[in-house]
Design brief:
The chain is of the alpha+beta class and 319 residues long. 57% of the residues lie in helices and 14% in strands. Strand 5 and strand 6 form a beta hairpin.
Length: 319
């Protein structure tokens, strides 16, 4: 099945842009995030996109054919780590490379490499979604929604590209942040923000799966909250009941209880027989049944009488 991050990427890899501007935007993001330009031994130029994702390489290859009508060469390498493979997609030839980089606005008219995200490349919302999709496919990850914290990030070694991604994500309504350690990381926090972002990129299945987990987690948290609240109330009721039992026993030992009105004696005896019952439950046991407020009123009278006739130390003494 793979991780949630892998499943999200697989869904995005199956989403192909239909408009040329979006094809160009997504390709540009992939090449910027995972591509490299180098000079070959025969003095020709090559652009290489490297990834461990076969789905990303396949998509990049098809987009190159669709937009540029250019073939690419794929090399499969063994990484030596748990039988994982790495894929190299190469575009060879100075003319082809120059054409692709210029079209993707990575190479300027003056043949200078450009790390910034040009505004013409992401003019429309569809192009912005395509660009962010390409960047996430190439260098993004997302935590499993089953975990406590929601976190999505896109990494890059290029500061200018990171700042451009941060600006673009904020422009699209997502509160992105950036930090730098070994590399630059553009990140999003929070279930609501990340859910909107993956839906914006086109991963609607992943969004629904994430929402399902989020709802279940919220329900579980609410149940736990209610259980904890109920437990606290129960402990409070039991503690109060036991304290009332001690007071009534003290009244009984001092021969005060038998002199009290029948209504108070009834509540006192019910409390002695049911020390853990709530006031409402005591009222239901009375004859005739009493309301919670009536029971509370009579219990308060008993406690008031105890303050007059019974020494506090006697009430708190064991046995």
């Amino acid at each position: 099945m793979g991780t949630f991050s892998q499943r999200t990427k697989e869904e995005l890899a199956r989403k192909y842009p239909t408009q040329k501007c979006c094809v160009k935007a997504e390709l540009a993001a992939i090449v910027r995030a995972s591509g490299s330009l180098h000079l070959r031994a025969n003095q020709s130029y090559a652009v290489t996109v490297i990834s461990e994702s076969a789905a990303l390489i396949r998509k990049t290859l098809l987009l190159l054919k669709k937009y540029f009508q250019l073939p690419g060469r794929v090399i499969v390498e063994d990484t030596g780590r748990f039988s994982r493979r790495r894929y190299r997609l190469q575009l060879i030839g100075a003319r082809n490379v120059k054409r692709v980089l210029k079209e993707l606005e990575i190479l300027s008219a003056g043949l200078q490499l450009n790390s910034a995200i040009t505004s013409s490349l992401v003019r429309n919302d569809c192009c912005r979604a395509a660009f962010l999709r390409g960047a996430f496919l190439a260098r993004g990850s997302i935590t499993d929604p089953q975990k406590q914290n929601y976190h999505l990030e896109i990494t890059t070694e290029n500061e200018e590209f990171a700042l451009g991604l941060n600006y673009l994500m904020n422009l699209c309504g997502f509160r992105a942040g950036t930090h730098h350690r070994k590399e630059y990381t553009v990140y999003l926090k929070g279930a609501e923000t990340i859910g909107r972002f993956i839906s914006f990129m086109g991963a609607h299945g992943a969004f629904l799966a994430m929402e399902e987990v989020r709802v279940i987690k919220e329900m579980r948290n609410e149940v736990n909250r209610l259980v904890n609240c109920e437990t606290a109330n129960l402990e409070k009721t039991v503690r109060a009941g036991l304290e009332q039992v001690e007071v009534i026993k003290a009244l009984e030992n001092r021969k005060v209880l038998e002199k009290l009105p029948t209504s108070l004696q009834e509540i006192a005896l019910l409390r002695l027989d049911h020390p853990e019952a709530s006031l409402r439950e005591l009222g239901e046991l009375a004859t005739p049944p009493l309301s919670k407020s009536a029971v509370n009123h009579r219990m308060r009278k008993l406690l008031k009488i105890a303050e007059t006739f019974v020494d506090r130390e006697e009430m708190n003494s064991p046995g």
